[in-house]
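Hey everyone, long-time lurker, first post.

I ran two proteins through the pipeline my lab uses and got sequence/structure pairs for each. Pasting them in order. The first:
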Amino acid sequence: FFEVPLNETKENGIRLTERKETLGDVTHRILMVPIAQDQLGMYYQQPGQPLATWVVPPGQYFMMGDNRDNSADSRYWGFVPEANLVGKAVAIWMSFDKQEGEWPTGVRLSRIGGIH
């Protein structure tokens, strides 16, 4: 992780940490609330890999929840064998407008029924 200096803040005054993630040829900038990093100990620890690093074995899948940092997914319970897959995502059922730390304020109707 790259620690953002303490004097750097986001507009709303929350100090963030930044890391980069490369998927294929695209590098993404990820900003995280530092306290969330304390939860890394709850992650599934793959034998032979550093904490929070996974190498997906052949015939297995890494399941990422649709709410990234607020999803209980393969980061917590490990990989899913291909034999356990029984379907394919075909549509978004429900999508809410929500700010961090607040209750959802509305339904994003434009996302329901689509795959984005």
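...and the second, right after it:
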Amino acid sequence: MLSHLIINSYKKKKKNPFSLGNMRGGFPGHEVGVVVFVLLTNVAVIGSSSVGVNWGTRATHQLPPDLVVHMLEQNGFNKVKLFEADDRILQALVGSNIEVMLAIPNNMLLEISQDPKAAADWVEANVTTYFYRGGVKIRYIAVGNEPFLQAYNGSYLRTTFPALRNIQHALNHAGFGTMIKATVPFNADVYDSPESNPVPSAGDFRTDVRELSLQIIQFLYTNGAPFTVNIYPFLSLYNNPYFPVDFAFFDGSSRPVRDNGLVYTNVFDANLDTLIWAMEKAGYGDMKIIVGEVGWPTDGDKSANIENARRFNQGLLDHVSSGLGTPLRKGDIDVYLFSLIDENEKSIEPGSFERHWGVFEYDGKPKYELDMSRLHGQRGLVPVEGVAYMPKRWCVLNLNAHDVEALADNVDYACSLSDCTALGYGSSCNHLTARENASYAFNMYYQINDQHDWDCDFSGLAVVTDVDPSDGLCLFPITIVRSASRSVRARLLGVLIGFVVRHFVLWLCVIF
């Protein structure tokens, strides 16, 4: 029996085997960052289903945006979403055929909600500048990210809807309203089924935000915009030790859920149909829905590994490409994988897995193969090409060091300023010895700081080596070179030319 499909992941209560904890970014102050939804389909897709992937940039060493855009084009990816207006990425997207969802972060909602001019200025700076023939194909504006998340304690309840209105009105005033729609990416905790009747057909919006959610839905529907929701089956396992593992994936469950003749074999469909039932009861059963984030991490938890990530994401791709939809709503599903590349600067308050959602490694190499032939005929993933690495040097524990009493403090210091999440319980480097743990911590700090000699000292406890300390399971990485996009100047020139041409044409229209 499916119990409580959508719950607050952080409630201190006994977990039911079928509960779906769904608060991936569920802590105040935790921003997802720049996120890109990349369509894993070519122009010729089966039906109109599309699969995207989030491109976050919360990393100490980011790949040059032009190289990433080239990789997306090589793979046939043609949709992206940014969680904030990053000029470097927008410039790299100029002239590409990649559709963009451009977002406004939560910390800007207050100003935009209070000042229509602030909304107009934002549209002028970030939409008008890039949206022209041959420029950036902006399709949606995402206003905030999961603003009604319960962990935010109502911080954005008063600002989200006014900000949404002001942005859409600014788009309309600028002449973009029929082409670009504003939406709000919600966390799935805004709807739920009661514990007394825990099935999708009993779904409804959360009591404390129901009225406000329906006002937003009506506004979106009137403007022809989609409802966007983020769903995370991984958290079902992470937050609930009783959750049946197979129900989190798409390859069948020994304990399917039955609801008025409909059969659910995975929690993704059950979750999505809970939302559809909630919208049906509100009178918007035919509204377009986009699943803004869905994915599986590869490290940082015992359930976060390469095998599970590939199993889930491949199952998701196959499910979407089938065109079968969900038990309640047949047809195409638009979903966006989370995420494109690992981000070593993300907050780990929700869990160490937060830095390991990427389908690609920090350097743009695919972590695993995905067969996308059912979507656009391409079986594998092409890596980012032309990546520049630092020299093959590592910082490890000096076995001849004497001041071992200071080792623990130095390891803690190194980890606090780098990323040691792979050392945690159930993670890829959890098998290392105490000495190897120290070497891993020292190396992460050394690499993040660009291999400066003075960053491999640690009170004389560390030494630089050219012998790779990695083993078959645990990678001691070499960082990539910090560099700006090599084509930024060319892209920027294109932006300026497009801007001038657009305003010249408008001037001619006024004159004649």
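Reply from user beta_strand_b:
Welcome! Quick read of the second one: The two ends are 69 Å apart (CA to CA). The first strand starts at residue 6 and ends at 7.
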